[in-house]
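Figure 6 in text form: structure in, sequence out.
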């Protein structure tokens, strides 16, 4: 089984795109869990490093956010050789995620 990165800190200073996991040639990135909040009402979306959407835009209220528990199959997965980003609109996203690199 590929190694799991147990904790990836996500700390945005403001709205925008932040890297959760860097691309590695020949590897896919599987998001196993994520929890966090937005500093202001807005949306968050998971995308790869090319900007391809891996999730829909999720509406989040003030100081609310997703809590996706550990899922060994992954909630989303990038294509091989692509990194994983979180994109927030309006508020800053702060939280933690767990990712897994798998052969691609």
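Output sequence:
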């Amino acid at each position: 089984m590929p190694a799991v990165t147990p904790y990836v800190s996500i700390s945005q200073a403001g709205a925008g795109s932040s890297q959760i996991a860097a691309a590695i040639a020949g590897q896919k990135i599987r998001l196993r869990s994520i929890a966090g909040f937005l500093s202001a009402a807005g949306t968050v979306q998971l995308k790869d490093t090319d900007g391809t959407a891996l999730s829909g835009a999720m509406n989040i209220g003030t100081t609310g956010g997703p809590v996706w528990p550990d899922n060994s199959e992954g909630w989303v997965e990038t294509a091989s050789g692509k990194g994983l980003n979180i994109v927030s609109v309006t508020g800053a996203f702060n939280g933690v995620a767990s990712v897994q690199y798998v052969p691609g």
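Caption detail: The domain at 4-103 is CATH 2.60.120 (Jelly Rolls).
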